[in-house]
Amino acid sequence: MSFAHNLETILRFENVTLELGDGDSRVRPLDSVSLEIARSEFVGVVGPSGAGKSTLLAVAGALQSPDSGSVRVLDQELTEMAGSQGKMAKFRLRNIGFVFQSGNLIPALNSADQLRLMNRLAGGSSSFDPMPFLEAVDMAHKAKNLPRQLSGGERQRVGIARALVTRPGLLLVDEPTAALDRARSQQVVALLAEQSKTHGVAVMMVTHDHEVLGHCDRVLEMVDGRLGTFQPATT
Ligand SMILES: Nc1ncnc2c1ncn2[C@@H]1O[C@H](COP(=O)(O)OP(=O)(O)OP(=O)(O)O)[C@@H](O)[C@H]1O
């Protein structure tokens, strides 16, 4: 892989602002936010509750449109698609993977079928084989288990495999360790870091868990809708 290829920008925010609510309760969860995340880069986002982190993920994931500014994912300006929910949904399905708190798996489907469904929704090949994806997260032996037959960490690993089925350029991760103990948290975030390098995915992970930040290439901090470099407290 060439150096130039490594530095390809996958996600770019330029001066993105979004206000929500009305009257006295009006808030600005995104206030002139600019950021760039390159292919294979794993970026953590921390910050106090209500700072705008989930909103940042929603806008990056084409789930919410900003009031102003530019949001590019790969070569697509998301704000240009804002008028068409259909286009947005299609683009999202093909290019953006999501991983949520507890894996967000469908209760009635086993691990392999979670991945098969994702492949089908994205219009993938009918000969799709979920096993290499499950092997990559060390879950091939639980391919036939339902989510309720898996531990929290295992559910999270299946969720990561499922998010990678469509080979997205961008992976958006929201509090992946919220339901996990310390050891499992480290495992899951190490896995995300590894997968970002193997698949060349740009990963943006929102977390309150400062113990996993060592796996990130870079950490940003959101405070009152503004994004800056995270300065860990030195006590
Ligand atoms: N639909 C909405 N209407 C009005 N205000 C909203 C809406 N969604 C979020 N907010 C407000 O926007 C601000 C940012 O919310 P957001 O969920 O992005 O914060 P967060 O950093 O993810 O918080 P947490 O760490 O608690 O999840 C908060 O003040 C929240 O109350």
From TrEMBL:
<dbReference type="GO" id="GO:0005524">
    <property type="term" value="F:ATP binding"/>
</dbReference>
<dbReference type="InterPro" id="IPR015854">
    <property type="entry name" value="ABC_transpr_LolD-like"/>
</dbReference>
<keyword id="KW-0813">Transport</keyword>
<protein>
    <submittedName>
        <fullName>ABC transporter ATP-binding protein</fullName>
    </submittedName>
</protein>
<feature type="domain" description="ABC transporter">
    <location>
        <begin position="11"/>
        <end position="235"/>
    </location>
</feature>
<dbReference type="Pfam" id="PF00005">
    <property type="entry name" value="ABC_tran"/>
</dbReference>
<keyword id="KW-0547">Nucleotide-binding</keyword>
<keyword id="KW-0067">ATP-binding</keyword>
<dbReference type="InterPro" id="IPR003593">
    <property type="entry name" value="AAA+_ATPase"/>
</dbReference>
<dbReference type="InterPro" id="IPR017911">
    <property type="entry name" value="MacB-like_ATP-bd"/>
</dbReference>
<dbReference type="InterPro" id="IPR003439">
    <property type="entry name" value="ABC_transporter-like_ATP-bd"/>
</dbReference>
<dbReference type="InterPro" id="IPR017871">
    <property type="entry name" value="ABC_transporter-like_CS"/>
</dbReference>
<dbReference type="InterPro" id="IPR027417">
    <property type="entry name" value="P-loop_NTPase"/>
</dbReference>
